[in-house]
Specification:
The complex is a heterotrimer. By secondary structure, chain A is an all-alpha fold. Helix content of chain A is about 65%, strand content about 0%. Chain A has one domain. In chain A, a hairpin with a 2-residue loop joins strand 1 and strand 2. Chain A is globular, with a radius of gyration of 22 Å. The radius of gyration of chain C is 21 Å and the shape is globular. Classes of the chains: A mainly alpha, B alpha/beta, C mainly alpha.
Chain lengths: ~325, ~525, ~325
């Protein structure tokens, strides 16, 4: 018995017209919307179109960007993650207590930050384990983990707010490089890292594939459970970093450091073109979504809308964006839970 | 069936242990014996056709061969060595791979990733992708089958035929795991292909034979005979024989598939009681169009059973659902007993006296954890209520009556329906439309799927009796024989259109081949 | 219609299966948990098992019971309502703002408006086919925003206490009126589910929405109804909160979301839909309340409360989940 060596020698390597590889209209929509929204606010408000405000927008987007990158990997799998507020709270308090602060004599600097991020990754891992081992749907598992994180934060908080005195961490928020705060550069680094993970790592590609057709992966002999846990862990680490960033902005560790970020991040990801059913979207989509959400909130404030409306506007656009994605595919006897 | 390892001559004149041998494979499902001692031999460099009716056990056998189903008894031998297959990976390690009927590709990955999925080898080092290596690996696979697909194209941007090539290329990756020639199983590969694409596929199959063994499953006998060296036939979970493809006639195969001519007697139970006079037109469909069907005209008379036949993708299932309001329509009009039918939703259809039995009984037909009684009265709630309130006594009487009338075997009316056998479940689902006695049109989508012979004949008898009482029935049958046996008239659908209508009165039934000619 | 009579009996025997130990245990879980908790707390602090502290406990539990009861119907339909707490907060603000103008009608108006807002979410869910947790997550955000804007982000005192005075009364001197109202809500909704076809529809939708639709059940209507009830219950809970706190505030009920979800799942209602009841949520809400008041008694800092909620939500969902239904858990 011989192997297929001679099976195919005479076939001429003719290239047929290339099938679609690049950008579709669906992918182009959010960037166009970003430009349009930016243009409208620039026309409406003189305060909006200043260079310093553009800096403001980018700086304001930093924390949300990091959270959104984390959640994007989870959404790509078709799961959902509501644990950002709890994990960010836990990491914010942890880092505030580990770097130089007014509560204790710790001065761990970078190590403190690393510990906070690791703790956050551990909490994320917990969500993943609850999902794959206990088979608890992710929205419930992460709701639970968020509560655990908030509880941890409250325990560590112990009634006295830890104000940080670490010059490096404080500097992240105020010192600028090329006109942008260090936090913004960190966020940009995270975008790059996230993109690389999504494009070049098995973890990122499998997360994408899990959202596309999980059962096929199993059929092909891929064990998806470890990848799911890894994705939630990775997301947790990003939330942890975001918690550290909030602590840097506030110069203090707060239990509520992550309040509302879960929803804002889902909004940003969905607006950027990530489908909640998974398998579509990605880090760059989400980054555009983050900018879109931030420009919108900033612009509304600039034109005189109460900042309290921020959450409301996000609520409306997320419902609209999800509906826009779902409506073309809806069928009569479709199940929506 | 021989169990001799050194089986006969192989095409090419060499003698070797068979590439794959199955001995006495048995698999039970609750209420059904899917495999009842199947024997099968696949020689090296041979294309073996596998033919059989729906429910003959083909798909269970294939699943057992790639480790998706664990048989209750029997043995699988690969190249003279007994193997136990626990997973697809196990099967691949032994050189067995399957091209699935519903394609098993991840749509949002590139073709290259799909081809190497799960066995990336040097394509992924320490969790990091090497796209160039990946592409090269995939290209090697595609070259084996002479396909010119761009390996970096997203899979969902490829045509169905191209995706099938990707799938074959993917299955051929199992060569990397064994030093032996693989056995490739193709499950109904032609069902959605156009004739030109089928030709390409056949070329591929002949090319595969050069270095692999192939099991080719199809319900189109002409195809099977065209591309295979030998054809094995399954019926009722048993191997009933095999013939060399050369010189065999489809009719001969067909007789083996459906068994002795007497076996379809059960279709005719109760036939005599039926009046031959056609009733008035009950359902009149004019120019109905929807997502997967176009411009369909259809007429069903009271007391008539009309079978709709067609291959996968003919649109008959969606047409059926559209008549029940469960699928959107874009044009056309439907009348029931001369009145315009409201197609806006299932509720309107129920109110108009239409009943629907979906093909997916477990997920769409019944609510598994709910009781027999509640399932039976789910639609016609007024039958168990007085005013707005449920009367448990009224419900009990009604349900018990129907349990008795249809001889539904259940410990109690309060038993969860999921604990009943398939046939009894289906009778409860049917009873749902009968309890209030106002059903005028029944739409039956594969009403006997997954049922054993006894349960089937009961469903057939019930259908006859309902027709006899004046109910119009649209039947999407499980097999051509069922359609022919049960229907008074058969409508052939192809590509979303109703193309032909064939009368099938008792005494003047068409043959399955007559229908097949019209279907393709 | 003739009467088909089939003489031949079915050839296949029914497959009989008994409930597993796990299923039996989970079906009694809320009651067992309640008894164990009560016993444990009494052992630790014999002073706990007195009329006055039990009365205080059920009085605290009342708004939670009402919130959980409404959302239970949504969960029974297979959905989830994450907006109940935010809607409840918004309703307290509405109450404080409208009381001077509407007087005695305020309570009715609040329940009606909250119900209408819930219905709106239901309509968005069924018409736009958006998953319920996204609609209600969006709703949560929107309601919080509205509450913040109209209250100017601060509490609004309620000076006219006469309107809500009845809720602070005690029936027979011991049973708080608020808790009696909560019991009435649970009883009435349970009776409607039991005595009318609605109960069948809700369970069918929860277990298998497509089977329910193909059986001609009014799926969309029932779902909108469930969200309406959930909203109305959030409104009623708001009135209870105002009667206790004498003010409306845009964040007053926000911390009730987790306890309410916990109450539902601890009660044993499956998050996958179909299986469960309002009585279970009542027991679940009492368990959650006992945990909350009991922690300080056994000497655990109240900061552990949140961790406990998280853990019991995950554990209870894991125990009650209908795994046969979801092959792939996302």
């Amino acid at each position: 018995m011989t192997s297929p060596a001679e099976a195919d020698t005479e076939v001429v390597q003719a290239r047929r017209p290339q099938p679609r590889r690049g950008v579709s209209l669906r992918d182009a929509g959010p960037p166009i919307a970003l430009v349009v929204v930016f243009g409208v606010f620039a026309a409406l408000s003189p305060g909006f179109r200043t260079l310093s405000n553009v800096q403001n927008v980018l700086d304001a987007a930093a924390v949300l960007a990091v959270v959104t990158i984390g959640i994007s990997f989870v959404l790509m799998m078709g799961s959902i993650d509501l644990s950002a507020p709890g994990i960010m709270g836990a990491s914010a308090i942890t880092v505030a207590l580990l770097v130089a602060n007014n509560r204790n004599d710790n001065d761990l600097g970078f190590v403190g930050i690393a510990v906070a991020v690791l703790l956050a990754a551990g909490l994320g891992c917990l969500s993943g384990l609850a999902l794959v081992l206990l088979k608890v749907p992710s929205f419930m598992a992460t709701l639970g983990v968020s509560a655990v994180g908030l509880g941890l934060a409250t325990l560590l908080f112990a009634g006295v707010q830890p104000n940080i005195a670490d010059p490096m961490l404080e500097g992240w928020a105020v010192e600028r490089f090329l006109g942008l705060a260090h936090l913004t550069w960190i966020a940009l680094g995270c975008v790059l890292l996230g993109w690389l993970v999504q494009r070049y790592s098995r973890l990122g590609r499998y997360a994408f594939a899990i959202g596309g057709a999980e059962e096929v992966l199993a059929l092909s002999g891929v064990r998806v459970a470890p990848y799911k846990v890894a994705v939630f862990t990775l997301a947790g680490a990003f939330y942890g970093l975001a918690g550290v960033m909030v602590t840097s902005q506030l110069s203090a560790g707060l239990v509520q450091a992550g309040r509302g970020y879960d929803f804002s991040a889902i909004t940003a990801a969905v607006v950027g073109g990530t489908l909640l059913t998974g398998g579509r979207g990605g880090i760059l989509h989400s980054t555009v979504g983050v900018l879109l959400v931030t420009v919108l909130t900033n612009g509304l404030v600039q034109v005189g809308v109460s900042p309290y409306w921020q959450g409301g506007v996000q609520g409306l656009i997320v419902v609209a964006a999800v509906a826009a994605a779902v409506i073309p595919q809806r069928r009569r006897n479709q199940v929506t839970k | 069936m021989t169990t001799n390892l050194q089986t006969g001559p192989v095409p090419g004149g060499r003698t070797a242990p068979p590439a794959l041998e199955v001995r006495g494979l048995v698999k039970h499902y609750p209420g059904v014996k899917a495999l009842d001692g199947v024997d099968l031999v696949v020689h090296q460099n041979e294309v073996l056709g596998l033919a059989g009716e729906n429910g003959a056990g083909k798909s269970t056998l294939l699943k057992a061969l790639v480790g998706l189903v664990r048989p209750d008894a029997g043995e699988i031998w690969v190249r003279g060595e007994r193997v136990r297959l626990r997973s697809v990976v196990d099967a691949a390690n032994h050189g067995l791979g399957m091209v699935f009927q519903e394609q098993s590709l991840v749509p949002n990955l590139t073709a290259a990733e799909n081809i190497v999925l799960g066995s990336e080898g040097p394509g992924v080092r320490r969790g990091i992708y090497h796209w160039r290596t990946m592409r090269r690996l995939a290209q090697e696979q595609l070259d084996k089958i002479g396909s010119h697909i761009d390996p970096l194209a997203r899979t969902d941007s490829l045509s169905f035929a191209d995706r099938q090539m990707v799938e074959i290329a993917k299955v051929l990756r199992i060569e990397e795991r064994t030093s032996h020639p693989p056995v490739i199983i193709l499950d109904e590969p032609t069902s959605v292909l156009e004739s030109k694409e089928i030709e390409t596929l056949f070329t591929q199959v002949r090319r595969l034979r050069e270095f692999a063994s192939v099991v080719f499953v199809s319900h189109r006998l002409d195809e099977v005979l065209d591309v295979c060296d030998r054809v094995a036939v399954l019926r009722g979970g048993r191997s009933v024989g095999e013939v060399p493809a050369a010189g065999a006639a489809p009719a001969e195969l067909h007789r083996m598939m459906i068994g002795s001519t007497g076996s379809d007697d059960h279709y005719h139970d109760g036939l005599a009681e039926r009046s031959e006079e056609p009733g008035r037109p009950r359902l009149v469909v004019r120019g109905l169009s929807g997502r997967t069907f176009r411009d369909v005209d259809l007429e069903v008379r009271a007391g008539e059973i009309v079978g709709i036949v067609g291959v996968h993708g003919s649109g008959r299932e969606d047409l059926c659902r559209a008549l029940f309001g469960a699928e959107a329509t874009t044009a056309g009009e439907v009348q029931l007993d001369g009145e315009r039918l409201d197609l806006s939703g299932t509720r309107a259809a129920c109110a108009a006296g239409i009943g629907y039995v979906p093909a997916e009984r477990k997920t769409e037909g019944m609510v598994g954890p709910m009781s027999v009684a509640d399932n039976m009265t789910l639609t016609k709630q007024q039958a168990r209520c007085s005013g707005p309130l449920v009367r448990p006594r009224k419900q009990a009487t009604l349900v018990d009556t129907w349990i008795e009338r249809l001889s539904i075997r259940t410990p109690h009316r309060g038993t969860a329906i999921q604990r009943l056998s398939g046939g009894n479940q289906q009778k409860v689902v049917l009873a749902r439309w009968l309890v209030s006695g106002d059903v005028r049109l029944l739409l039956l989508d594969h009403p006997t799927r997954g049922l054993d012979i006894g349960a089937r004949s009961e469903v057939y008898r019930l259908m006859r009796e309902l027709a006899g009482s004046g109910v119009a029935t649209v039947l999407l049958a499980d097999s051509l024989e069922e359609a022919i046996g049960m229907s008074d008239r058969i409508v052939v659908m192809s590509d979303g259109r109703a193309t032909t209508e064939i009368a099938a009165p008792s005494g003047g039934k068409p043959t399955p081949l007559d229908l097949v000619k019209e279907m393709v | 219609m003739s009467t088909p009579v089939l003489a031949q009996p079915a050839s296949d025997a029914p497959v009989v299966a008994r409930p597993t130990v796990g299923q039996r245990l989970t079906s009694f879980m809320p009651v067992i948990a309640l008894v164990v908790l009560l016993a444990a707390l009494t052992v630790v602090d014999p002073g706990f098992f007195t009329l006055s502290s039990l009365t205080a406990a059920v009085r605290t539990a009342a708004p939670l019971v009402v919130l959980a009861a409404g959302a239970t119907v949504v969960v029974l339909c297979g959905g989830i309502d994450l907006s109940i707490a935010a809607l409840c907060s918004l309703a307290t603000v509405f109450f404080a703002l409208w009381l001077p103008d509407l007087g005695g009608l305020t309570t009715l108006a609040i329940v009606a408006v909250a119900g209408a807002i819930g219905a709106l979410q239901g309509v968005a869910h069924v018409l736009l086919r958006i998953p319920s947790f996204i609609v209600t997550l969006g709703g949560m955000s929107i309601f919080s925003a509205i509450a913040l804007v109209i209250s100017d982000a601060g509490p609004i005192p309620v000076s006219d206490r006469g309107t809500t005075h009845w809720l602070t009364l005690y029936v027979a001197g011991v049973l708080p009126m608020a808790f009696v109202v909560a019991l009435v809500v649970v009883a009435v909704v349970s009776l409607v589910l039991r005595l009318t076809p609605v109960g069948s529809w809700v369970r069918a939708i929860g277990y298998s929405e497509s089977a329910a639709r193909l059986a001609g059940s009014p799926v969309d209507l029932v779902k909108v109804g469930a969200f309406t009830l959930s909203g109305a219950c959030a409104g009623l809970a708001a009135v209870m909160l105002v009667s206790r706190n004498f003010s409306g505030s845009p964040t007053m009920a926000d911390n009730l979301l987790l306890p309410a979800v916990a109450a539902i799942v601890v009660g044993g209602t499956a998050i996958t839909g179909g299986h469960g009841s309002l009585w279970r949520s009542l027991a679940g809400a009492l368990v959650v309340t006992l945990l909350r008041v009991g922690l300080p008694i056994v000497g655990v800092p109240s900061a552990y409360e949140q961790i406990l909620y998280g853990a019991i939500i995950v554990a209870a969902v894991a125990l009650t989940l209908d795994r046969s239904k979801v092959l792939i858990i996302k």
